[in-house]
Write a structure and sequence with these properties.
The protein has 376 residues and is an alpha/beta fold. It folds into two domains: 262 residues, Queuine tRNA-ribosyltransferase-like (TIM Barrel), CATH 3.20.20; 93 residues, no CATH class. The termini are far apart.
């Protein structure tokens, strides 16, 4: 894997991550394909929207159908019919948030599946082995996602454990990797504490990774606190490596994080919102459950080149959302992912053109008009 930085505008960066499966244009948003599918979407749709990479989840795929089973079927690329790059997260966050019972130790995490209660042990070595079996092009170290709020001591102990697991993850990657150009990213932890975040960065740089993620955010700390953490963390990360903000976020989050030098994102927000009647547009959010849309003939965005945004009235979308039709989730997810990918493309273009500040100003001007009633 290689990272090429093509241009900068302030701290915002436009570049490319080169993988064996193709180029990832940055800033990049990775649609989340948790269990081998981007919910309510065909994979060729996801590609046509402009996504260069998707995310798969170690926790969910290890539970069903199982990593060995996916490998026997040709790997995750073949299994889910996606020929571009795939990043897999380590499973650590889901172990902490979804499993019924879990017990942390130096070795790893022993947990019970949220599906059937079966016991599993996830160690740094097993996480990397699973990600290798899946065939991920970018793999993540196993870390402990520090909860919020956490005392400084809790955050320090958690960060120190994640550092030790990072060392073991790196050794496991060197053992399991087939030497085909795939990558391993480290994850910066340390809660909201500047000294701990910088210590985590220093530790990870000593170990050495192909890219660096900022983890442990979007867990309840709020946008203001998240941005403070990015302000003191991102400048410490190497210029010549991709920077990935995990689990973020809203369109505004993406714009503000790109302005601070972040290159890669993932979040379930656009797909989850689509399944719950919420559309993201250039003019802001539109809640299609709202009765004000019942007789609104306007599309979500008549200027969009996405059929879901431009060819269906808000009245119709409101109707199928209220009726619980499957098509509602399909159309709104299509719209949302189209908007997210268009937003990333606009940011790439404006960074290259040196007009990123003007883009940000226009973005904020537009974002408050999405759910307004029609003008008589």
């Amino acid at each position: 894997m290689d990272f090429k930085l093509h241009s900068k505008d302030g701290k915002a960066r436009q570049g490319s991550v080169i993988t064996p499966r193709g180029e990832i244009r940055t800033p990049a948003f990775m649609p989340v394909g948790t269990a081998g599918t981007v919910k309510a979407m065909y994979m060729d749709q996801v590609k046509d929207l402009g996504a260069d990479i998707v995310l798969g989840n170690t926790y969910h795929l290890m539970l069903r159908p199982g990593a060995e089973e996916v490998a026997a079927l040709g790997g995750l690329h073949s299994f889910m019919k996606w020929d571009g790059p795939i990043l897999t997260d380590s499973g650590g966050f889901q172990v902490m948030s979804l499993s019924k019972l879990r017990k942390m130790s130096e070795e790893g995490v022993n947990f019970q599946s949220h599906i059937d209660g079966k016991s599993y042990m996830l160690t740094p070595e097993r996480s990397i082995e699973i990600q290798t079996l899946l065939g991920a092009n970018i793999r993540m170290i196993l870390d402990e996602c520090t909860p919020f709020p956490a005392t400084e001591k809790q955050a320090r102990d958690s960060m120190a454990l994640s550092t030790r697991w990072a060392e073991r993850s790196k050794k496991a990657f060197e053992h399991y990797d087939k030497g085909e150009g795939d990558a391993l990213f480290g994850i910066v932890q340390g809660g909201v504490y500047e000294s701990l975040r910088l210590e985590s960065v220093s530790n990870l740089l000593d170990i050495g990774f192909d890219g660096y993620a900022v983890g442990g955010l979007a867990v309840g700390e709020g946008q203001e606190e998240m941005l403070k953490v990015l302000d003191f963390t991102v400048p410490a990360l190497p210029e010549n490596k991709p920077r990935y903000l995990m689990g973020v976020g809203t369109p505004e989050d993406l714009v503000l994080a790109v302005s601070r030098g972040i290159d890669m994102f993932d979040c379930v927000m656009p797909t989850r919102a689509g399944r719950h009647g919420l559309a993201y547009t250039r003019k802001g959010k539109v809640n299609l459950k709202n009765a004000r849309h019942a007789n609104d003939h306007r599309p979500l965005d008549e200027e969009s080149d996405c059929p879901a945004a431009s060819q269906y009235s808000r009245a119709y979308l409101h109707h199928i959302v209220r009726c619980g039709e499957y098509l509602a989730a399909m159309l709104l997810t299509w719209n949302n992912l189209h908007y997210y990918q268009s937003l990333m493309q606009e940011m790439r273009q404006n960074i290259e053109a040196g007009s990123f500040d003007a883009f940000v100003a226009a973005f904020y001007k537009d974002q408050n008009e999405g759910d307004l009633p029609p003008i008589d």
